[in-house]
Amino acid sequence: MLLIPCPHCGPRDEIEFACGGEAGRARPSDPSALSDTDWGEYLFMRRNEKGLRRERWRHSAGCGRWFVLERDTCTHALRAGR
Amino acid sequence: MTPQPFRTAAGGAIDRTRTLSFTFDGKPFQGHPGDTLASALLANGVRLVGRSFKYHRPRGIFTAGPEEPNALVALGAGARMEPNTRATVTEVFDGLTARSQNAWPTLDFDLAAATGWLAPLLPAGFYYKTFLGRSQVWTRLYEPMIRAMAGLGPAPVAPDPDRYDKRHAQCDVLVIGAGPAGLSAACAAGAGGARVMLLDERATPGGALLASRETIDGLPAPAWAGAAATFAAMPEATLLVRTTAFGRFDDNLVMAMERRSDHLAPGAPGPRQRLWQIRAKQILLAAGAHEQPLLFSNNDLPGIMLAHAGQTYARHFGVLAGRRVVVAANTAGGGEAARALAEAGAEIVALVDGRPEPEAGEWPVLPRAAIARALGTKALEGVEVARSGGERTMLACDALLVSGGWQPALHLHNHVNGRTRFDEALQCFVPDGVLAGVKSVGACAGRFALAECLADGHSAGSDAATEAGFPAHFRAPNAPPATSAARQAAWSGPVGAKSFVDLQNDVTAADIDLAHREGFTSVEHLKRYTTTGMATDQGKLSNLNALRRMSGHLGVSPGAMGVTGFRPPYTPVTFGALAGLERGDLMDPIRTTPMHEWHVRQGAVFEDVGQWKRPWYFPHAGETMEAAVRRECRAVRTSVGLLDASTLGKIDVQGPDAALFLNRIYTNAWLKLEIGRCRYGVMCTEDGMVLDDGVAVRLGPQRFIVFTTTGNAARVLDHLEDLLQTEWPDLTVFLTSVTDHWAASVVTGPNARAVLGQVLEGADLSPEAFAHLGMIEARVAGVPARIYRISFTGELSYEVHVPAPYGRAVWEALFEAGEPFGITPYGTEAMHVLRAEKGYIIIGQETDGTVSPFDLGLEWAIAKSKPDFVGKRSLARPEALRSDRKNLVGLVPLDGKTIVEEGAQLTAIPRGAPPVAMLGHVTSSYWSEAAGGPIALALVKGGRLRHGETIHARYGARSVACRIGPPIFYDPDGGRMHV
Predict the structure, then answer these.
(1) Which residues are paired to B203 by β-bridges?
(2) What's the 3-state SS for B780-817?
(3) Is B876 an interface residue toward A (CB < 8 Å)?
(4) Which of B170, B439, B745, B778 is the most buried (most CB within 10 A)?
């Protein structure tokens, strides 16, 4: 079980958190301007990197806040995200 | 007193002043405090303790520790019966009852041992080769046969009467194993004030020191261990004995099981076992090493055991493994075991050693020699010794101690990211690489000599304390330096076919050879094809020998083959310990409404909705569920009913941008909703599929309450928080769950206005003053209330929301006011029927995450003119617009009496062999009093264009013809709820 550094509460057990997948995917400001292909790309496609990846996490059983965490998908090494 | 013929006259750490009585297979025996079941059985001369997994061969006690592959017994009886317990770690208590397993009719005379004669027909891969074929042969013949014959002990069937609990702990330095390295490390780490935890699986700390004759700081090793263990008296130190660390997980989390009262008579006060979850800054793995067996024919006979086990029984337990003992080894360990047995009074027949120059002793020493085979049927009677020159010698003996070298216990190192390498000098696998905050020390790292263990533990303990921010002051313990005899290559002798590589899974050298011939040569294939290492002992005594044998065939080093990964648990863990107190009512929170006790008193039958207990129906005496639900439905349609809707999710939405926020998350328009008005809305996820539906009300210019489905409340709140925090941080909106703050009573039916009017103060219920989808604040039964005119039944309805503490009083007042009208409390089943008659959907029943608002016929609730809302773009994708998507329809069974099964598949033809095109499925199905027959809702491909057609509901062997129609069966123009 990971020990996740919540930026607001400090390190807490993984069971207190929910992972929201890849970070940095902003919702387009005008979705209607996107082609079906581009919208499908935003909605469904994820990079699934090997190595360090930025993820969205929520301290759901704690402060309830979303934050970004960097996690190495090979070693589980964690680092506070930007 | 029953004599204990193999107990030594003196010595050992047992308490000879007290005698304990226990039974094995019904026969009474005696032991002493400090005995394990294994040591007590050996003391009583009991050799045969079990039968093997596959061939039902007689087996005895092979080890003195947790790696035991053979001596698995069932302890206790009834609900407390525990199968597959290792006799070598079970402490004897007065009244202990143990039974052998896997033998029929008796341990001594096992009919299934006949499979031993069939052994040539049961080679490796037998399962894969034989059980291909017709599935009926498998289910009717092979599976029952295998279940009866193979396997281990039976599981108890009654609920476990014992208590278990859990503890969470944090520490600076966690030391696993209290042998020489672990004790040395814990003392060094704790000296500077660091919080140190030291775990050991045995009852007494000391590990290998307990059977050692060496001296440390001038003290005999066992006495030094006792003194070192007093470090636990330091204020920040914790010593847990009878505690097995069974798994290491990410970020230095270790799980351990403490056996708190397994060594006491059943029913002892307090929890039986405790599960520890320990998060440590530094972990030192000092779990020691496992001595490895030798391969020769019949190496599994009772009377054969590991050399260090024999030494431990002699020195720590005062028990002789036999009176005439042969020791066979290919390392220096054999000589020490021979000395221990000789000191304890046994005759050492010979030390058989594969090396050219083994250590001398006061017994015959045979260099360059190995055991060719063991003789005997149910117990060892002698051995045939082979010399490298070719000559053979027979030796009579009743015990054979074997040592094939040592393999460090790499399990916890390996559980997370820990790599291993083969050490050619030590001829075993050792930890490789550096792990952050985790280090293997002592024998666990391949440093086997006592002086090395002490020094290694001391420096690692000091370093760990320093890393954790504490000074280390402790003086390093001193032991005589190891006699560093150069390692000698050993002659391994002939290895016959019936040499068991894996004792617990009955895998022989011949099976490894077969795997090689058939090409299953990688470690992963070898393991799965032969099942070696896959038993409950996880190959602690078999992996190395299997790899050596295979690598010999391939002409490579075992290191070139690698090892399969170890996974937790290191030794078996009980389900009780994993569950802890989280069983029965404590497994998951139970949520009840303020009116719950009233429902209980009325005899309501409850159903679980998420964590909530909701009344399902309220049967009268002797009434069936069917009759009760019909009566409840009739009451609502003809007079008035009362529903507890407190479980409905309620989210208080406040802030300057609250209206804008709702406008983005619902599919319809919200900006212009007037204060005091309600609106039905549908929420989609970004893929355009329905997430939830319900009503929201505007309480003020910047304030709304959003109602959600009971089971979906947390999910909807998460969805909204996600959008607010991550996509639209520019919006100023605050979300608060108020589900539990409000109790809701729904008064519904033609007489609802008359009932509510009797207990209402300060408001006018006339349709002009309080129309459908309105909200007023008034007093009900003297309590300030919010009353919503919203309907989930299609009848005139008022939802009366009051602060939760008043819920019961207001409910009772409404019930009393309704009694002249025959007011009827109704449950979720009638609620479902009534809403289905109106075609109102239930999230999770009509929807499953693949259903869009269009599919449900809710296009009227989609504001196409809004520039954007969550899901809007996806609803414009070609896939969402296909005319053959499944649409919500109503079904009426043509026979007018069959209630089709929910989930039934719908097909165009009434019967016929597969494949048959499936056109959809039934989502809801009930008997409708209002319609006078069965009705159903269904999702059907292109359903909205198929009204009037016939379709067939198929389930089991049934096929029911149904007519497709619109999803509404009652009051289609909605006049009844607008009165």
Answers:
(1) none
(2) ECCEEEEEECCCCCCCCEEEEEEEHHHHHHHHHHHHHH
(3) yes
(4) B745
